[in-house]
Design goal:
Strand content: under 5%
Oligomer: single chain
Distance between the termini: 32 Å
Order of helices and strands: HH
Helix content: over 70%
Number of helices: 2
Number of domains: 1
Structural class: mainly alpha
Length: about 90
C-alpha cells in the first residue's frame, strides 16, 4: 500500500495528463514572459498574481509526480533487495 495513506499510486493515464498539463503551463509562462511589460502598478500586480498561480500549479504537479516516483523507486528497491536476499539464501 502507498505511504500516502489511502491514495494509491498515480495511474499511468493520470500521470500522462499531469505531465501534459505541466508542459502546457510551462509554455504559458514562456508566453507570459514574452509579453509587453505592464504599464501600471495595477497591471503589474495582476500579471504577477497570474504568473504565481501558474507557477503554484506547476509546483503542485511536480510534487505529485515526485511523490509517485519516490514510491516506485522504493518498491523497486525492495524488489531488488528481496531478489538479492533470495539468491544469497540459495547458495
Amino acid at each position: 500500500m502507498s505511504e500516502r495513506g489511502t491514495n494509491p499510486r498515480l495511474a499511468k493515464g493520470l500521470k500522462l495528463d499531469l505531465i501534459e498539463r505541466m508542459l502546457g503551463l510551462r509554455h504559458k509562462l514562456k508566453v507570459h514572459d514574452s509579453m509587453k511589460v505592464p504599464d501600471t502598478h495595477e497591471e503589474l500586480a495582476s500579471s504577477l498574481n497570474a504568473r504565481w498561480e501558474i507557477e503554484d500549479e506547476i509546483h503542485a504537479i511536480e510534487e505529485l509526480l515526485a511523490e509517485d516516483r519516490a514510491e516506485i523507486i522504493a518498491e523497486r528497491r525492495e524488489q531488488l533487495l528481496g531478489g538479492i536476499v533470495k539468491k544469497k539464501k540459495e547458495f
